[in-house]
Amino acid sequence: MTDSPISLYELNRRITNAIAVARDLQGVWITAETSDVRTSGGHCYMELLQKDEKTGAPLAKCRAAIWASAFARLGAMFYAATGTRLRSDMKIMARVNVGFHAVYGLSLIITDINPDYTVGDLARRRNEIIRRLQAEGVFDLNRTLQWPAVPARVAVVSARGAAGYGDFVKHLHGNPARLRFATTLFEATLQGERTVPSVIAALEAVMERVDDFDCVVIIRGGGAVSDLASFDDYSLAFHVAQFPLPVIVGIGHERDITVLDYVANTHVKTPTAAAEALIARANAAYERLKTLGNEILQTVSARVAGQRQQLAYYQGLLPALARNVLESNKRRIGPEIPAAIASAVRSHLARSRDRLDSLGLLLDTLAPEATLRRGYSITRAAGRAVTDSSSLRPGDTITTTFASGPDIISTITQSIE
In this structure, are residues 229 and 87 in contact, taking their beta carbons and an 8 Å threshold? Predict the structure, then answer.
């Protein structure tokens, strides 16, 4: 026969008493990962879990709480040591008391936290990301990009209306040297869980217009220090590391450096410092331009002065040179010119004589007398040569001329058909 049954409440009461007197369940230091961290009424609630290191599958899970009486002290201590608030997805070492409630079941009450363990884990995770980026060959890509001579076209990744964005724009466009910049805002969320996908989306939007810009600035003004964890993200660091434009990161943190700071071309503390970095580069380019202009002016001035001296020298020599040329030509004209003229005239006359002789021969060949000497005669009617016999009429008088002898005069007696 079975023992008499007890109620669930009685069973839970016995568990509560058993746990309460179990010395090895009180004040135990454990390591776990936080999840679903939230605060309410000054208390801090969370879940602690342990995952399989290979598969990531949960091996153990338990509710935990830090009562308000301890949370004010532990929260401040944790922030001072780590630079971040207690949040989800952190590895912690905590001292706990195991408790059991008849209604809510098993829970852990955190009475102390060792922040050094968390700091070490954050550093380890950051180093793992850095080593992965280095192994993939992208860690130094953006840091070693060459800047354009004047980075005046700036793509800004920030939240519209954020104080940090306003400070950046005001400082950049209000620079004392009145250097002109063109800024285009690509909106993103830089605080909270949306930070990583939001910034990546903004970078991809910049990439679609990459030829329109000289550099990218990622900025936020202040914000919760715990939000820095978003900038220790592999995906975001990968996008920045391999971005084809120089990237300036100024996310408003003074005491800590994230992976994003390591892979960006330039990292500064604040949005205003980001503006200063751009102004400094533009000023340097302006100073180089002024120096080059002065060097060109000095070189041209020296060259002009030298040419003026040379011109003055030649101006002084010109009258003497002209006189020397005239005198030299005069001396040459005396014996040389008359002989040259006479020779030229003789040559011209000879050429003219030969030409006249040739024309005379041509005229003799073409003259009517030459034709007659070859056995031909010329018949004329009314003083004009007759070339067509049908043009003659009875009674017409014709004259026939021969190469030698007198002309013969004839009269047409009948029609010639």
Answer: yes
- Alpha-carbon distance of 26 to 32, in angstroms, equals 17
Q: Which residue has the tokens 């009562």?
A: 67
Question: Residue 284 and residue 56: Cα distance in Å, rounded?
Answer: 52
Mean pLDDT of 259-266: 93
Rounded to an integer, what distance in angstroms lies between the CA atom of residue 211 and that of residue 20? 69
Kindly state the DSSP code that residue 367 receives in the 8-state scheme. Answer: S
Please list the alpha-helical segments (H only) found in 136-180: 163-173
List the Cα angle 324/329/335 in 5-degree steps: 135
One-letter amino acid for residue 80 of the chain: A
Q: Which amino acid is at 38?
A: R
**Helices 234-241 & 115-135 angle (0-180, nearest 10):** 40
| Residue among 235, 226, 224 at smallest CA distance from 259 | 235
CA dist 189 → 197, 221, 325, 353, 386 (Å): 9, 12, 88, 108, 118
Beta bridge partners of 379: 400
Of 383, 393, 389, 391, nearest in space to 414 by CA: 393
Model pTM above 0.85: no
Segment 52-95, tens digit of pLDDT: 878 878 899 999 999 999 999 999 998 888 777 888 888 899 99
Q: What does the alpha-carbon distance between residue 230 and residue 265 come to, in Å, rounded to a whole number?
A: 19
pLDDT at 396 (0 to 100): 78
146: which DSSP letter? P
C-alpha span between 87 and 36 (Å, rounded): 8
> Which residue in the block uniquely carries the two structure tokens 């080593």?
131
Q: Is the distance from CB of 165 to CB of 274 less than 8 angstroms? A: no
Alpha-carbon dihedral angle through residues 76, 77, 83, 89, given to the nearest 10 degrees: -90
Cα–Cα distance between 345 and 343 in angstroms, integer?
Answer: 5
What are the structure tokens assigned to 56, written together?
A: 């990531």
Cα-only R_g, the chain: 56
Rounded mean pLDDT, 379-390: 78
d(CA 238, CA 227) in angstroms, rounded, equals 19
Q: What pLDDT, in 10s, does the model give residues 214-225?
A: 999 999 876 555
Phi, psi of 103 (to 5 degrees): -95, -45
CB count, 10 Å around CB of 275? 27
Highest mean pLDDT among 98-107, 109-118, 332-341: 109-118
